[in-house]
Specification:
The protein has 18 helices and 11 strands. It is of the alpha+beta class and 470 residues long. The longest helix has 31 residues.
């Protein structure tokens, strides 16, 4: 049976969180916390029916916090968990690095058992510092010319489509652009070869979809057609990664020009570990960035007045040629527009941490190993923090939000999304070039709905019309 995609996304999050709690058991009889919340609606599955009825984990948490306040509890099967949604509570957990590794355990066949997703404590912190060297502000800024070049390739295609009065499949194009940019940024010139990129993406997309299906339908049956294709796809992805490694070894690269794959090669002796983090960073970064850019273009297309205001600002600071970081920094309305895109779309609605010892949170005792959900999405639509939160209004960011009120890429324990600078700069470059060259509009008759999962995406493809500016 094929499930509607909205239910599929909801179940994926439920299964991930259900798996999460298997290694962090706190039975009802062991509950020692005074955190208010729901009693299980089912003896066997806890509050899963409530989550399903809400439509998604994000929408469930919205209702939970509306009823019980900024700290609330609920049950996944027979396991107890806590969700928080206030700047003050976010601050209390901001030092926490460790996260419940089983949150990603169901993705292990894809990302590998040695992924950084499963690293906590000193080992995880050391590896994270190592990886962050490849995603510093200076490193991303140094690659702005590459990001602009790839963006211009897509816009040349849009120009031809505009002349032919063809509609643009927004999500599909953003996904293709981001996969190309992230592989080039992190893994070098190997993926400059279009055939190599297509081969890599074909297997990656199939394996990722197969994992999504397995989360809902159960593990792939050994020896089944899907299981065979999945394993063959993973093997081809590993072979391509080995080819990338061999290519980089043959090149003379100065230390200041080292990229992500070089850092992994310097510090890992096991190629399976390299592959695990290659796929982990693509899984986390490419999907988030492509949907960030999709939402930004959607809001641009649906707010003509803002599009005109952005055009005036962009053409004031950008006359053509290379885009610089200083230009982008001067475009304050563009910056506010991108921040409001992140807030309004609730791009990454939930994250998770775990206490390794009994702790206090919001005046309540939290037993050790209790997973703590940081409900980022709920906070980004909180009427106590944002005036008219259901209105898309970039001007709200003329004033700085309270500390911890706006953390769209996460925040806790120096485990913020490692590629957030790449995501932001790439999105800004694409918006600048698009605004300068085109007027964009939504194809009439579309109803665009949010689909909440680990990343918030449109439920269906968004179609745009593009028109060359005079």
């Amino acid at each position: 049976m094929i499930l509607p995609f909205g239910i599929l996304a909801c179940l994926i999050v439920i299964v991930l969180l259900g798996t999460l709690f298997l290694l962090y058991p706190v039975t009802r009889s062991q509950k020692v916390s005074t955190v208010p919340g729901l009693e299980p609606s089912s003896d066997s599955v806890g509050n899963i029916p409530d989550i399903q009825n809400a439509g998604s984990m994000t929408e469930f948490l919205d209702k939970l916090h509306k009823e019980f306040g900024p700290i609330a509890s609920f049950w996944i099967e027979k396991e107890f968990t806590v969700s928080i949604a206030s700047p003050e509570l976010f601050k209390e957990v901001s030092h926490m690095f460790d996260k419940p590794v089983t949150l990603f355990k169901s993705l292990e066949p894809l990302i590998g058992s040695q992924s950084i997703q499963y690293k906590n404590g000193p080992e995880g912190q050391q590896l994270r510092k190592l990886h962050d060297r490849s995603y510093t502000q200076a490193k991303v800024v140094s690659q702005m010319a590459l990001l602009q070049e790839l963006a211009e390739e897509i816009l040349k295609k849009w120009s031809k489509m505009a002349a032919a009065q063809e509609h643009v499949p927004l999500e599909r194009h953003m996904s293709a652009l981001v996969m190309k940019s992230h592989t080039r940024f992190a893994f070098g010139e190997y993926f400059k070869d279009e055939k190599a990129l297509i081969a890599f993406r074909k297997d990656y997309d199939f394996c990722f979809r197969a994992m999504e299906n397995a989360l809902v339908e159960g593990p792939m049956k050994p020896g089944s057609d899907r299981d065979i294709r999945f394993k063959e796809g993973i093997q081809r992805l590993k072979n391509i990664t080995r080819e990338v490694i061999q290519r980089r070894k043959q090149e003379e690269i100065s230390p200041e020009d080292h990229i992500f794959i070089d850092v992994l090669m310097e510090n890992y002796t096991d190629e399976d570990m390299i592959f695990a983090d290659v796929i982990s960073y693509l899984t986390g970064g490419a999907h988030t960035t492509s949907f960030f850019m999709t939402w930004a273009l959607y809001f641009l297309a649906t707010h003509e007045d803002m599009q005109d205001k952005l055009y005036a600002e962009v053409t004031k600071y950008y006359k053509g040629g290379p885009i610089t970081w200083d230009m982008i920094k001067n475009m304050t309305y563009l910056g506010n527009f991108m921040k409001e895109t992140l807030r309004f779309s609730r791009l990454v609605p939930i994250a998770a941490r775990v206490f390794s010892h009994d702790s206090q949170l919001g005046g309540h005792v939290i037993p050790k190993n209790t997973p703590i959900i940081t409900s980022i999405g709920t906070l980004l639509s909180d009427k106590n923090l944002w005036k008219d939160p259901e209105t898309f209004n970039p001007d709200r960011f003329n004033e700085r939000p309270p500390p911890y009120a706006f953390e769209p890429f996460g925040f806790a324990g120096k485990r913020k999304c490692p590629g957030y600078r790449l995501s932001e700069i790439e999105a800004n470059i694409f918006l600048v070039l698009t605004i300068k060259q085109f007027k964009v509009a939504l194809v009439p008759g579309q109803v665009v709905k949010n689909l909440y999962g680990l990343v918030t995406k449109p439920a269906d493809e968004i179609w745009l019309t593009v028109e060359e500016r005079k």
